[in-house]
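4.2 Preliminary Data

To establish feasibility before requesting continued support, the project team ran the inverse folding procedure on a target of 640 residues. The structure was first converted into the token representation described in Section 3, and no sequence information of any kind was made available to the design step. The complete token record follows.
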């Protein structure tokens, strides 16, 4: 389908505008369509009219069924009310329906009441419906009473139907212009557009006409602490809840095409250019200069600071069915419980990196080979939940988010998302299945491939919109991760990705807000073929190639201290003396070099000197080695 998120759509257009062809294109992918014909046959001697009707019939595929409502205009409402949820109806057109409504054979008739009945039937219709109607409101007022009655009735019908439909499109000279975009909540206005100047303001939409969003308790934030000794005694918790996060009472409307902030397009290149002027030996920072450019763009300065406060969001959610083949039942729940207790690999890495940890339970996903992973309303809730997690982190002063995940079947779900968004072949993006004993389980790998293949076949005619992919294939963890990326983008918080769930979420987020990927940094591909492909599509180059397999998010936490060191170094190093910087080895200008032998460098003093008159050494400053003499900091040194 050409646009997603609607259940009913009205296609308007003038004569020969292409409105019927466009409406037919909206349903072209559907296997079965009920075509509801409303136009009367007309005068048998009117060959031109008969030719028009024949052209319409010739365009309909043989799999479509046709139903006539020309005998009674009220029957159209009955057809809509009796439609089943799995049906798709194409009504062409309302101009013919109004013609029948005003026909003298049906008089006296209450056209106002009949139009109201039609609008109500559209609102309550369980099937998907496309309605076509001519737009005659731009022409001159007819000079005949019958012409004026027709235009008045058709205008009233178009207004009532447009109000009842989820979406309205006007076709002009074959070009569609969407007048009313589909929204996920009928009475919710479009989201507020954020400008780059609104750095700290969340991009949300107020649901003034709806009930306030019920409060949902977000998980506690843990602050893991490194153990005092390498072998900590069992039973001593590493982490303890620090606070329960407050809720955001404002409702969110997350829909395709949101305008979220972009990083500073000038600060990144300026920061990289500045690196070439620093007093560093050799070729400098190598590929890690990308870290400096990314941090500069997201912080809006050519001299970015090292990220201080970081938070790990560990998303825990299992996928049922063949996607989870080869995994031990309950293993992901055990890992999540470990992290909540401040134990396990991820919690220890978070502690060493000085990052807080938040374990998030996401909705369990159904077998994608048989049914939707999540219901559409669950997808909406998961997206808003992820957005709130990012907002709470920003409100707490977090400067960097790290996305992590643990769950059965996550790799297969990510492969299905990649197949739907990037056209990948499932076997090419599904990694090998490794058992707990370190053996390769080819049988489990084949079951996962079959599950993804069957899921793609089941959804072959479904929309490929972002929310549809999350509902059909992605599941709860990918949906929450997508919400996190969108919320972080709205609050200008960079995200460190590492693993298939985060990359799958980044792929989905492109259709909701294309700016989100520019706030993402990929630490390592981790050897995952799905991560490699998604990174290539998104334009994210992995910084490292550690090949660790400690779970999604672990490589990012291992890399975090290195990334911080690079940022601290780039901010602290002075400009090279040849470019106007000050040489640290030169004595201060206001203290002339002494000729007293007692001030000589001790390394140059002869071994048999009888007067080893050395000055008291002072502690070495950052980045400087003590020479054993009384040194003063050089004026060209820059603090971090």
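Position-by-position output of the design step:
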């Amino acid at each position: 389908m050409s646009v997603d998120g609607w259940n009913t759509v009205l296609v308007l257009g003038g004569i020969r505008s292409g409105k019927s062809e466009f409406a037919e294109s909206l349903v072209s992918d559907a296997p079965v369509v009920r075509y509801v014909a409303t136009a009367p046959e007309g005068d048998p001697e009117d060959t031109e009219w008969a030719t028009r009707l024949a052209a319409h019939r010739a365009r309909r595929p043989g799999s479509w069924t046709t139903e006539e409502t020309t005998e009674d205009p009220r029957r159209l409402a009955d057809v809509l009310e009796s439609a089943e949820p799995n049906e798709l109806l194409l009504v062409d057109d309302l101009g013919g329906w109004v013609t029948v409504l005003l026909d003298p054979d049906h008089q006296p008739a209450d056209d106002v009441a009949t139009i109201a009945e039609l609008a109500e039937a559209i609102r309550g219709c369980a099937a998907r419906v496309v309605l076509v109607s001519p737009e005659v409101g731009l022409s001159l007022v007819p000079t005949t009473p019958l012409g004026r009655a027709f235009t008045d009735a058709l205008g009233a019908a178009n207004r009532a139907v447009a109000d009842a439909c989820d979406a309205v499109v006007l076709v002009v000279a074959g070009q569609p212009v969407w007048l009313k975009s589909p929204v996920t909540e009928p009475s919710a206005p479009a989201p507020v557009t954020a400008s780059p100047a609104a750095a700290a303001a969340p991009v949300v939409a107020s649901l003034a006409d709806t009930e306030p969003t019920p409060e949902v308790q977000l998980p506690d934030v843990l602050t893991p602490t490194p153990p005092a000794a390498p072998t900590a005694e069992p039973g001593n918790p590493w982490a303890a809840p620090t606070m329960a996060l407050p809720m955001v009472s404002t409702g969110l409307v997350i829909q395709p095409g949101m305008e979220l902030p972009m990083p500073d397009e000038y600060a990144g290149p300026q920061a990289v250019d500045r690196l070439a002027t620093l007093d560093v030996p050799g070729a400098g920072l190598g590929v890690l200069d990308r870290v400096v450019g990314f941090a500069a763009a997201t912080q809006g300065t050519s001299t970015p600071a090292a990220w201080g406060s970081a938070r790990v969001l560990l998303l825990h959610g299992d996928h049922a069915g063949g996607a989870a083949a080869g995994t031990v039942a309950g293993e992901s729940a055990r890992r999540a419980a470990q992290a909540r207790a401040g134990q396990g690999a991820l919690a220890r890495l978070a502690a060493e990196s000085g990052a807080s940890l938040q374990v998030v339970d996401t909705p369990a996903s159904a077998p994608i080979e048989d049914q939707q992973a999540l219901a559409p309303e669950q997808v909406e809730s998961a997206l808003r939940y992820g957005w709130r997690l990012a907002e709470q982190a920003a409100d707490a002063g977090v400067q960097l988010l790290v996305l992590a995940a643990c769950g059965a079947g996550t790799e297969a779900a990510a492969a299905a998302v990649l197949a739907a968004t990037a056209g990948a072949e499932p076997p090419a993006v599904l990694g090998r299945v490794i058992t707990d004993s370190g053996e390769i389980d080819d049988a489990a790998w084949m079951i996962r491939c079959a599950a993804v293949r069957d899921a793609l076949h089941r959804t072959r005619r479904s929309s490929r919109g972002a929310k549809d992919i999350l509902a059909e294939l992605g599941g709860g963890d990918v949906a929450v991760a997508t919400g996190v990326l969108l919320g972080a983008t709205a609050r200008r918080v960079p995200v460190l990705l590492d693993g298939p769930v985060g990359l799958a979420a980044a792929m989905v987020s492109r259709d909701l807000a294309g700016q989100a990927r520019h706030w993402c940094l990929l630490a390592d591909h981790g050897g995952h073929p799905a991560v490699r492909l998604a990174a290539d599509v998104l334009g994210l180059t992995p910084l490292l190639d550690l090949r660790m397999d400690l779970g999604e998010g672990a490589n990012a936490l291992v890399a975090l201290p290195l990334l911080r060191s690079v940022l601290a170094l780039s901010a602290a190093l002075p400009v090279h003396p040849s470019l106007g910087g000050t040489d640290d080895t030169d004595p201060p200008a206001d203290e002339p070099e002494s000729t007293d032998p007692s001030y000589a460098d001790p390394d140059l003093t002869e071994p048999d000197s009888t007067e080893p008159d050395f000055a008291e050494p002072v502690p070495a400053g950052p980045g400087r080695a003590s020479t054993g003499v009384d040194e003063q900091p050089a004026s060209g040194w820059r603090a971090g």
